[in-house]
Every structure is written in structure tokens, then in C-alpha cells.
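Z., the sequence and structure:
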Amino acid sequence: MSHQSSATTVRDVEVTRIPSGERITLPAGTQVVITQALGGSFTILVPSQAGLYRIEGQDADSIGQEASPGPEKPADGNLEQAAWNQLKTCYDPEIPVNIVDLGLVYSLDVKSHQEGGSEVSVQMTLTAPGCGMGPIIASEARQKILTIDGVTEANVDLVWDPPWTPDRISEEGKQKLGMI
């Protein structure tokens, strides 16, 4: 969603404050403005709270929206491509570019898990080390990878070396951000 729309919460809903990562509950009847709806989650402006918040996809109904469909099955058993596809559904709630095109994912490795299935390991960074949303974005990436058939374990580690720079943004990401 690239345009803003107003909504009112129809039930109490737990949200995450951006960028601190603090969890609070918005009561039913709270006026909000949906500023971004990407990757299954929603970024909302809450005028009465003077800030931005994130609503997870499973709570989309609380603002009159529908949850996005689940992950696709990996084509030809290609778990690595399926994992990359899932990472492309993860967004920083303040930036309308997925974490892959933003250049935040440094590595992705798939290997057989000793107890069966596959393990996916990801190393990623953030645009700023102090961002409180980092653990939330990493957790979302992990959870989305775990929904892939055949993946039994997923690890997403935040790393700071090398430091992220805008040079890591893909051409597609730069276009979305109006950088080219």
C-alpha cells in the first residue's frame, strides 16, 4: 500500500512502537492512519499516541484489513530460493523496500539438519545499529523462513560488520526510494 488510509481499531490490539520496539496495547476505537502495508504487516500512525506503530499480519482484522496469504511452496524443492523469497516479504516499517533489496541481508545458507529437514542460517544487519526494531525484523524473518516446507530450523543473526551503507541497496530498491 503506497497511499495512506484512515481506520479505527475494532478491538484491542497489541502493537510495536517504532523504532523503540516497545509493545503496547491500543484499545478498540483508536483512530489510526495506515501509512504502509507491506509484507503482511502494517505501519500505522496513531495521532493520540504521537507516533508510528507496527501491527502484525495476524492482527490485520483489528484495523479492517485482511491478512496476506501464507508462503508459497518451494518450487522444485529449492529451499534457498524459497528462503530468499520469504526474506523479500520482510520490511523495515519505516522504509518501503524489503530487507533484501535494502541490502540488509549479508548471507543465507541452507544445510541439512541433523534431525531431518533443513536449517537456514541468515546474517543480516540494520541501517542503524541503535534501531530497536532490529530484533523484531530478525524475528519476523526467522518466523517466515520457518513456514517453508522442509525447513525445520532457522537462525537469523544481526551483525554489524561490514557496516551497512546505501551502496548496498539494489537497483530496484533505489528506484522505489527515488534514488535513481
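Residues 5-63 form a domain with the SH3 type barrels. fold (CATH 2.30.30.40). The two ends are 21 Å apart (CA to CA).

Let me know what you think.
H.
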